[in-house]
Amino acid sequence: MLGAIEAGGTKFVCGIGTKEGEVLDRVSFPTTTPEETMGKVIEYFKDKPIEALGVGSFGPIDPVLGSDTYGYITTTPKPYWTNYNIIGTLKSEFNVPMAFDTDVNGAALGESLWGAAQGVDSCIYITVGTGIGVGAMIGGKLVHGLSHPEMGHIYVRRHPDDPFEGTCPYHGDCLEGLAAGPAIGRRAGVPAGELAKDDPAWEMEAYYLAQALMNYILILSPEKIVMGGGVMKQLQLFPLIHTKLKELLNGYVQHPNLSDEKISSYIVPPGLGDNAGICGALALAQSALQGV
Amino acid sequence: MLGAIEAGGTKFVCGIGTKEGEVLDRVSFPTTTPEETMGKVIEYFKDKPIEALGVGSFGPIDPVLGSDTYGYITTTPKPYWTNYNIIGTLKSEFNVPMAFDTDVNGAALGESLWGAAQGVDSCIYITVGTGIGVGAMIGGKLVHGLSHPEMGHIYVRRHPDDPFEGTCPYHGDCLEGLAAGPAIGRRAGVPAGELAKDDPAWEMEAYYLAQALMNYILILSPEKIVMGGGVMKQLQLFPLIHTKLKELLNGYVQHPNLSDEKISSYIVPPGLGDNAGICGALALAQSALQGV
């Protein structure tokens, strides 16, 4: 039995599951102080015979093994959590192999094992919700380097009809600042979820997301692109993104996956649906068990 | 002894060298038709006792082992070379292990073995010359997926003082269209190499390249960035790029390598200098020998 923690900035989800990705039990509670929140986590796992534990976390985090701050949530602006040693706290309670990564890297791994990205060696998982985060698996491994990817903050070109200044506290009108849920809502004056399916806002959203995909494709060349998160429940976005992406690439990257016939099975919703996060943490636990 | 082929769109360089990256001999000739050019390649290696052969090629190419067109130069607009099976041609003459990749992936590997990126697990090699190409090593492996990276063609935001329409036949004002050598020259009305070191053109160039680096860092998180090619011989670009990059990131990615003290050893010229290309092909030969 594997243990999984989806450590989100708003809520934590803890669960147990099998090596086949089946979630057997789960609980959820709001993210408050580290002491209170981690107290509930420890309470949940205390009497469960887990063989390994996976943590997919909000960030930025330090996932680089051997680093002095490995296992920390690092420079988050979230009150109380800056430089919090989440893996250290768990290690002092549970003597099992652990894996620690971003929530989106976890989700990419989970989708590759049990979801929409099975059978490929490289994929990215994009969540578009209150923020924009992207996880990446390349050559069968989750991408780490200096740190972990932060692809939601790339700059994209502004839509000519968009005067909105953007919401990102670091970059103003980076991708997240222009295209995450709160940006759509603030630009429109109503929450994104209340906009009609044919509102022009979705064309603009697709324009921004397609630019991001173009960059991810040109830089990482993933074999599958999975798009989840609250905003991507607006399924009308998928065909709009497909069209805009093909316009932007303009035939430069020649691959059958980008053809009219296949693009809708290249850029897809999560196969694990709303379980993408917790299954991602489960996948991390499995990787810890295998010593990957 | 290893054999190396740097297959460029303008010229081919063939050489032999050691497993320590020392080039022992080399020849160079213009790229004409495949028959004539490959005839000279075969002639050069015919009587040399090479144990493996590495080919770093202009592209796009198909470097994906197991693909039907593995070893081909694919959709290049270069006359005569479209869908040319370069590895097939070499295999019919030489019965040694071969490795085939983009010239820039080869250079990234070469820099990681013998050059400026030694001791790291992930790096990128950027060439800024008649085009812009980028090779990437992540987790110790060169990046392949759907195909190979084509990072020179990402979109960047236009400089507010830049009315130039760009030179890319596919995308107009993508990065390559705005910032490769020919774009600098056409915008200025004189060849880039004739501009004074303090010409404002270099500020603009640094603005575009820094945007690209920001995206590469946020997406790939490389531990070292090596910048070569003709344009990067303008060494005044390095400090300009460092400054612009820090402005753009605005403190979002916190890492010592991005500090004022260390950024000039994070973003660096090639350790192998003008040998980056041929040593890259040598590094590919070595990887073929090791069956990597």
From TrEMBL, chains A, B:
UniProt-listed SUPFAM superfamilies: Actin-like ATPase domain
Pfam family, one: ROK
Cofactor or coenzyme needed: Mg(2+)
Claim: Glycosyltransferase is one of the keywords in the record: no
EC number from the UniProt entry: 2.7.1.4
Keyword terms, alphabetized: Magnesium, Metal-binding, Zinc
Reactions this protein catalyses: D-fructose + ATP = D-fructose 6-phosphate + ADP + H(+)
InterPro entries: ATPase_NBD, Carb_Metab_Reg_Kinase/Isom, ROK, ROK_cs
PROSITE patterns: ROK
Family listed: Belongs to the ROK (NagC/XylR) family.
PANTHER family attached to this UniProt entry: FRUCTOKINASE (PTHR42742:SF3), TRANSCRIPTIONAL REPRESSOR MPRA (PTHR42742)
Protein's recorded name: fructokinase
Record organism: Paenibacillus physcomitrellae
